[in-house]
Please model this.
Amino acid sequence: AQSVTQLGSHVSVSEGALVLLRCNYSSSVPPYLFWYVQYPNQGLQLLLKYTSAATLVKGINGFEAEFKKSETSFHLTKPSAHMSDAAEYFCAVSDTGANSKLTFGKGITLSVRP
Amino acid sequence: GAVVSQHPSWVICKSGTSVKIECRSLDFQATTMFWYRQFPKQSLMLMATSNEGSKATYEQGVEKDKFLINHASLTLSTLTVTSAHPEDSSFYICSAWGQGVSYEQYFGPGTRLTVT
Model:
């Protein structure tokens, strides 16, 4: 069975500061990994994904994540936070089969202070 | 990118009534769609996998007689909450895998259900 662990429920940073959201996964097969963002009362938007190509993945809005197999991690980073980054962030894992289910972490709320 | 729509975006119904939520893939065909529910400040919980032309696969603990799923075409899946109760109030989100080389699950905007 696959699982995702997102430690902590809330991260607060100052505008312009580094954003680091942690994600660790557990999977018995090579995983695909995803980061999604959710704004209040909206669906999920894909930020970036790892699908066994480059281990450093760049996504939208300046976010990137690095797949580290030895650490079973896929942490999300952004060099400089913007007020508009305040949202809920979910890490998710799936296996590599077609139409596979996504397993989500519990999510992290990112707040950005002026 | 691919677009998934949901209708309605919000609905209020009385306890004991049924409500249907539609999920459509607007510009691609989806043989498989997923239905999630999300409580406030919580993550998405997969309810069921909807397969076109066949029965849905429900996750453990989800009442299949209460949450009826029909995937009648390659672009439409519906979730019907039967005999709704206040505890069914939640945010329901559907999704579908995109086609082709883009390995990405596209999410609908969600439906807020309130049962009074």
Remarks:
- The CA atoms of residues 37 and 43 of chain A lie 9 Å apart.
- Chain A touches chain B at residues 32, 34, 36, 41-46, 49, 51, 90, 94, 98-99, 101-107, 109 (CB under 8 Å).
